[in-house]
Amino acid sequence: MTNINESMRWDDAIPMIMRGDKVEGGRAAKPNLQAGVLANRTQYLRSELEKYSGTLQAGEQPYSDAEAAQQAINDGKILPGAKFSVRSRQSDAWVDEYENDNGIATPSGKKLPSLEAVNALQEMVSEQSSELMMFLFSDMDDFHVADISFDEETGKHVFNLGRMALKRSAGATFEVTDPDGFRMSVDDLIDRLRKLESGEYFYNGMKITRSEQNILEVTDADGFSLSIDDILSRLVSVEKGSFDYSGQSLQRSPDHIFEIKDPDGFTLTAERLIERITALENAADDDTDTSRSGETVAYLEGVASAARAAASEWVSPPVAPLRKGLNLFFIYGQSLAIGDEAFSVVTRQPSQLGNLMLGKAVRGTYYGRTNDADFGVIGGENIYYPLTEHRQDGANIITDPGRNTRLGETVASGFMETLKMLHNRAKGVKNDEETILACSVTGCSGTNLATLLKGAATPYYERLMSALRGHMEAAAAMGITDIQVCGMLFLQGENDYGNTTRESFLKMLNQLIDDFNTDARAITGQTDNPGFYLYQTGGQYVSQSQGNTLPIDMAQLDITSRADAFMAAPMFPYPQASNSRTHKAANSYRWWGCAAANTVFRVLNNENRMPFRMVKAVYDGDDIYVSFMTPCPPLAVQPYYRVATPVMNSDMGFTVIDGIGNLAGSSLMTKIVSPCVIKISPSRKLTGNIRINLGDQIHGGGHNIADSSPQQSIFNWQYYGDDNQSVNENINALNDKPYPLYNFAAIQTINVDGVEL
């Protein structure tokens, strides 16, 4: 006799033998099918009973806790694989299901609800409620995922998933309704698919079509079309390395994961975006130990935000704007103004945007401490030439690469080319040929401010006026009658450190501006004053004179309170060409010119440009918190250079001064704690009057506080290694890369207040 092959399973239905059924043998016979189902159920029940036999024999269920159950396993009372119950410690459950998993009492996650939980559920499932009847699903945090509710409109129950209602209706087989009442039905979807299948479909004013040219095409109300084919072609283009969209070049490069470059050469990289995001995250990191410090940071962040809002307010400064005709700029000062120790030039082609210079070189013949009051135009004639950087020695332009000279690149090309490019972008033209920019570089190396003033015993101011009159003659030769002096870039202060007070230097700056404005208006006939744009002295020239109060740097900040005077950019961050650290490298002069142009352009376009500086500092008895007027938050830490070496100070360049003495370096801990606030933690309690310096002599006249502007120059750092270029300009971290144009904060001293919120 053949046996029925049993299976350990629970079959839901038992076949019934009906009257008239033929009784026969074989596996398919109904009597055997019926017996097989019953045999299967028997095997299943036997298996389940064996699982619980050990537990039943123990006679101790439910166990009081997991420890008691584990002891029962250890005593051999609960067999391997057996399931058992343990009293639950949760109020909404009576017992938890456990299993003997290889000798370990392990919860399965299943529970039997308590009476309390059942009662609560009954309350929710009230038939009188027209709102929520039953939770179908909630997570462990009681987040409501799904429920069943009563729809008063239809008189039927509705399944709600999140905030979406899923139901049937008289007009639809299946319908989904969002919280705003928007409905989408299966019938509607089918209808839309039919329309799309027929060739076109309209949705929210957009036409979705198929065509012979495109698999799928979307056209908006203005006629702009985008197709699947176009997207695929772009993806293929990206895979190859780059594609262009609306004048922007999107590409990968050996140096960057992804970069975007506009038609003017400005580049934004994925790495730079990541840096900014990281800086924002770090700035947002809660570094406060008490509510008091949190209040202090919030207060100072508000102070900084108010200052930044005022700085970016659109105004009409009383200075000459760029306009049709001839716009003149003069670069005046001492040795940094004339490009001393640049040695070489890195701008090796004439202006690409039509910018001009007086004579065959941007400098004149005379730039030293001589009695020459004449500008000394190179070439002997007051006529215009395309702006071109030259190596120069007096009246001679040096073309022999083997001949050495101190004078090379000036700030002129970086400034003029960047300014004209920004102007063109604002106008939306390739080059505005009706707006002409021209410049000259003059001044005297190694001299103080008093000698550069009108009426001084020295003739340096007269050289400046000689250059202006030369420009007027050159303009007349070209038939230009609409002429104005648009601005002066003033680079001086080194020779006044240590022997000139803050008040005296400020007074002389005011005199220089007033006299230049008066004379420029008289010579050109213009009604607007030229703008006065100055740098800030830095590096080795910063001394601890006058109690380390930074008199020259502070006077340079003070002058910006005038409506026609502006801080263009500090000079300290940029590399020097020689180990003497007295002057800048050729690339550095051009770099500063680019940074200055960014400021000047904003001023000329009516932005109330104020210096990036500390605005308030407070001491709470433990830490100093200082807020900054940050042009492009958040604050960031960036290196500055000593010759070719980047410098990162552990204290970011801060010095704390109190009644006991100075604290810097390892005596200070500094951290950016919000987008515009830095915390300084001194190693001891502070006493008396407290003051902080940023970028003083202790730090070599520099610091590491910058903003997060992503702007980059149209020029790259270039090391050619020829034509007398200093080997110190061979800096791997900079070579062939655009100059970054994030802003550095001003060198400054500021008094620290107590916390008064």
Protein described:
There is one protein chain. With 757 residues, this protein is of the alpha+beta class. Among the domains are: 1-58; 125-192, no CATH class; 295-309 and 612-707 and 742-757, Immunoglobulin-like (Sandwich); 325-406 and 434-609, Rossmann fold (3-Layer(aba) Sandwich). It has 13 helices and 40 strands. The strands form 10 sheets. An 8-stranded mixed sheet has the order 33-32-36-40-27-28-35-34. Mean pLDDT is 84; it is low at 52-59, 124-143 and 286-290.
Low-pLDDT stretches are 52-59, 124-143, 286-290
Spatial gap, N to C terminus:
99 Å
The CATH topology name of the domain at 325-406 and 434-609 reads Rossmann fold
The CATH class designation of the domain at 325-406 and 434-609 is: Alpha Beta
Nearest-integer average pLDDT: 84
Name the CATH homologous superfamily of the domain at 325-406 and 434-609. Answer: SGNH hydrolase
CATH level-two architecture of the domain at 325-406 and 434-609: 3-Layer(aba) Sandwich
Features:
elongated; 26% strand; eight-stranded mixed beta sheet; alpha+beta; 13 helices; 757 residues; 26% helix; Immunoglobulin-like
Please summarize what this structure is:
37% of the residues are buried. By secondary structure, the protein is α+β, with helices and mostly antiparallel strands.
